[in-house]
Design goal:
134 residues; six-stranded antiparallel β-sheet; DM13_domain; DM13 domain-containing protein
Length: 134
């Protein structure tokens, strides 16, 4: 799991949700939600069953952003600048549930969103602000 991807078939306790959110359109419509779970020393980002983004988009990654609205004051394709994000992993699929490990050196108290990002064109496909889980 060095690349951050997690096999969704693994039957493991994800722990308590600490953040969640719903994806919002940027470059392309994206549906679904995410939850970030903490279980001991492991922190996981899980995308929902109804997650879907543009399957034709190349080079898609999951990233954690430093802004709750990473497209504010930007024009299409809403490029991300240096220091505005940390990539977790290449997106496993454009649809469906998936999980990614968040490295321990990422401080979620400093970060504000989950981003679906096209690396090839530096385009923000969608984003979801981090909201404290209820």
């Amino acid at each position: 799991m060095a690349d951050g991807k997690m096999d969704m078939d693994m039957d493991m306790d994800m722990g308590d949700a600490i953040f969640s959110g719903a994806f919002q359109k940027a470059e392309h419509e994206t549906t679904g939600t995410f939850a970030i779970h903490k279980n001991g020393d492991q922190t996981m980002l899980r995308l929902s069953e109804d997650f879907a983004t543009n399957p034709a988009a190349p080079d898609l990654y999951v990233a954690i952003g430093t802004s709750a609205n990473p497209i504010a004051d930007k024009e299409l394709p809403y490029p991300l600048g240096e220091g505005e994000y940390v990539t977790l992993s290449e997106l496993t699929s454009a649809t469906g549930p998936q999980a990614y490990e968040i490295p321990a050196d990422i401080d979620l108290s400093e970060d504000k969103s989950v981003i679906i990002w096209c690396k090839q064109f530096n385009a923000t496909m969608s984003y979801a602000p981090l909201e404290a889980a209820q």
